[in-house]
Each structure stands twice: as C-alpha cells, then as structure tokens.
Amino acid sequence: MEELDNNPFYLALQDRFKTEFEASQLERALICIPASRSLRNIEINYDLINAHLMKPSPYFKDQYINALKPHKNRVVSIEGNEIQRVSGFSDNSSVKILEEELGYNKQGKSFRIFLIEKPLDFVKKVASENQKRQLDISQEWLDGSAPIVLSECKNILRQLCNGKALASLDNKVSVFIRNYLILPQYLEDASLKVKSIVESSFKDICEEETWLDFKTSSAINVAVEGYVSHIVHSKLFSIICQRFKMEDQNLSEKLQELHQMELTPNQLGADSLFSCSLPATIVELATLDSLICARDKIQCLKNSIDLIVAEVKQNLQETQGVLTPPGGLPCLTSDDLIPVLLTAIIGAKLQHLASNLYYIEHFLWSLSSKDVHGLVTFKATMEFLKTLNVAHLKPRENKMKKELSLEELMQVTEQLQTKTISSKDDEKNDQWTPVDRQMERIARMIEASTRELSSVQHHGVTQNNT
User: Fold this and answer.
1) Computed over its alpha carbons, how large is the radius of gyration of the chain?
2) In angstroms, rounded to a whole number, what is the distance separating the alpha carbons of residues 138 and 127?
3) What integer pLDDT is reported at residue 368 of this predicted model?
4) What pLDDT is attached to residue 83?
C-alpha cells in the first residue's frame, strides 16, 4: 500500500497548490492522486492538478466536473472500482482505483480521496538541455535526514535559479532582519511573516523557472526554507527563548534533579523489560539545542524515537536470548515510550526543551504524519515531566549507567571509524545496525558543520565567490 505522505502529487497539493487543495475540499471534491510510479517524467503543474480535482456535477448524479478553473469540460463518473473518463480528456478509457480514503475539510465535512493507477490527463514537459541545470541532490537531503547546511542551500539556489528571484529573496530577508520587530507575545505573527517570505520566494522562483521537475522544485523549496531559517534564526530563536525562559528554566532544573537520581524507565512507569541505557539516543538528543533549521530539529526528534526502538530491541535480544517468547520480542507501546524517552531527555540535559518544541511547531509548515507523531510524542513527554512527582516514583529495580565515560566514547568512535572505512567497499554492509547508521549520520553532520565554520562567509545567496 502506497503512503500518501511520500506521493509527489499529494505533497505538491499540500505545498505548492495548498490554496487549490483547500478550496476543493470545501467543494467536497473528489481528489484523485496518481500513483507515484506513474508520475515519472511528468511535470506536476497547475494543469495536472486541475485535471484531478473533480467536484460533484450540478447536472448529473454520480458525475464529477473540474473543481478549478478553467473547467475544460472534463467529466468523470465512478463505476465500481474504476473512474470512467466521460468527456474532456485525450483518452476516454477507464482508470483503476487502487485505494480510497476519507478526508475532512475545515467545516468537518468529508470528501473522498482516490489513489489511482495513472494520471487522468497530463502534459509532459521536458526541458531543453540548455535549460536544465541539474544537481546531484540526495534523497536524504530532500527528506530532511541529512543536515540542512547554509552553504549547500546557497549552492543549490545559485545553480538552479536566476538572479532576479534570488535578489528578491535576499531583499525580503534583509528587510525582515532590519525592520521587523519581533515581540515575545506576538511570535505567531512572526511565524506567518517568515512563512510568507518562504512561500512567496519559492513561488517567484517557480514562475521564472518553468522547466522545474518535482525533485528539483522540492530541492529549491528545502533550500529556500533552509536559507531563510539560517539567516533569521539568531534574531528569532532568542525571542522564543525569551518568551519561554521561565518554562525552560523550570524544566532544566527538574531535569538536573532527575539526572542526579539516576532514574530508570521502570521507575517512571515503563515495563522493566524496557529499562536499558540509551547512549546513541542521548548523543542524538544532545544536538537539539545546537541545530538551526526547524526541519533539522524535527528530524532529531524522529531520529531519537527510532534510536530508542533500536536500542531497546538490541537490549532485549541480548538479555532475553533463548528466552524470547513464541510471539517474538515485546513491543514498545506509547505508554512505555514516554517514560523511556524521558530518561533520554534527562541524559541529554536539554536547556531549551519548550522553546525548541514551539519553534518546530510554528516554524515548520509542512509536516508529514511521522513528523506529527514525533512532535506530539515529545510534547506529551514534556507534559509528563512537568507533572512528575518524584515522591511517587517506583523503587528502582535495576541500575543503569548515567552516561558514557570518555573511554567508552573513544571506543564507540573507533568502532564507527572502522565500520565507515569498511563500508566504502560495500555500502550495504551487514555489520551496520540502526545505531551505527545514526552515529555515522551524526559524524556527517559534525563534518558538515565544520566545513561551514571554516568556509569564507558571504552575505546573500546572490554574491559570487571572488
């Protein structure tokens, strides 16, 4: 079953064509999403979107017409598990419906979403060779699992976009830095302002660069968001920390108190099977305060949850061994995840937990279902921390190490370097565990940050190296 969160057409509806998507929802339109595999070499533009948002016909029952203008006299009907193209299409054959979901608009009314085997109608648009300026853009960078580095954002924007759009972007950011007054009690207004800078700049670029395919436009969107985030971060995040100063301070003091108690997850309410040390998770979480982009911060939250699952699973395999029950290893439920996650937060000694969660929630405007799960889990854990009464803690069943020693950190680094070298000959080395892959990702992030600090700094993406 295909995940809509990974479908390029659906992602375009939530991002570039969000206005059209929301208007169609109010019409209770039929939203037809072509399967990802059918969209290869097809430009996702307004015409393609228009052909797949169909509102109920006012003339004929069980028929649908274009929800957007121009209507182009397109008409479809639903016959069993197929969409029949009645008129207005270059091909009147039927298209198979693969899956159906229900969505709900802002008024609480439902609308239907169909995942279909292929587009109902499209115009292929291939750029000429002198127009294409393609980069080797990794999927890791696009989906946020690789760090968003300022120099890389500049490089992508310089190579893929023209000077006029980039000059406009620089001007908007400069005006915001110089003239926009950010007040702690009006941070929501600042969020809307920064969002408008990102969205309007991305729109300007797309209007100038009409040849863009989905992957390239996605790269530009990430680059614009990353560039703006890096430039406004120092001005913006300090105000967020000012607004949440007392809450951050109270949480930090409570974390310090709990750190001294050397708590285990089972004392906080988790099953004793899940009480184990979480060194890789703690290392990952400890980077949260130093990250700049909200996209990097949400990735840190998701990575931490993934690492908890991996480290708990590894511990269960090592401790249970032949005693594993017939049904397999126990599952880490949400009731157990929050106490386990709290012990990792305690170990990471986070200073600005409330500020970081607010920053992610209000300055990252496109969230996948996994992003939402990560953010909600951390917010629930923060509320659990606030209400935690140390007088009501369970007695300790076992003692875990509070943190890694210097010698252990050196040993982990040496093991990582050994596996990194061996992986050059075999990228799919079976020795790698989820924890190893995460440690390697952290190493890449540190290396990228080091390159960033050592490079010559320039103002604006339009300034060329001299």
Assistant:
1) 25
2) 21
3) 80
4) 92
Q: What is the pLDDT of residue 378?
A: 95
Q: SS3 for 52?
A: coil
Strand partners, 85: 76
**pLDDT value at residue 1:** 63
Residue 400 to residue 136: CA distance in whole angstroms:
44
pLDDT at 464: 45
Please state the φ and ψ torsions of residue 404, each to the nearest 5 degrees: -75, 140
The C-alpha torsion from 33 through 2 and 308 to 419, rounded to 10°, is: -110
Q: What is the pTM of this model?
A: 0.62
User: Could you report the per-residue pLDDT of 111-142, keeping only the tens digit for each?
Assistant: 999 999 989 886 555 444 334 445 556 666 66
- Strand, coil or helix: what is 156? helix
Dist. CA 229–CA 51, nearest whole Å: 35
Q: What are phi and psi of 313, to 5 degrees?
A: -60, -45
DSSP state of 180: P
pLDDT, position 145: 66
Q: With CA atoms as reference, report the closest residue to 93 among 79, 72, 105, 107.
A: 79
Residue whose C-alpha is closest to residue 341's, from 270, 288, 258, 414 = 270
Residue with tokens 């109010």: 26
The angle formed by the CA atoms of residues 236, 237 and 242, to the nearest 5 degrees, is 105
Low-confidence ranges of the chain (pLDDT < 50): 126-133, 322, 401-402, 416, 419-431, 434, 446, 449-450, 452-454, 456-466
pLDDT at 456: 40
Nearest to 461 by CA among 219, 231, 295, 215: 231
Q: DSSP characters for 106-148? A: TTS-EEEEEEESS-SS-------TTT-------HHHHHTSS--
Q: How many other C-beta atoms can be found within 10 angstroms of the C-beta atom of residue 91?
A: 10
Q: Could you give phi then psi for residue 57, rounded to 5 degrees?
A: -70, 135
Question: Measured between alpha carbons, how far is 6 from 154 in angstroms, rounded to an integer?
Answer: 26
Are the C-beta atoms of 17 and 31 separated by less than 8 Å? no
Residues 356, 361, 364, 365: what is their CA dihedral angle, to the nearest 10 degrees? -170
The tokens 């097809």 sit on which residue? 42
User: In angstroms, how far is CA 354 from the centroid of its own chain?
Assistant: 19
Distance from C-alpha of 420 to C-alpha of 400, rounded to nearest angstrom: 29
Q: Rounded to whole angstroms, how far apart are CA atoms 419 and 153? A: 30
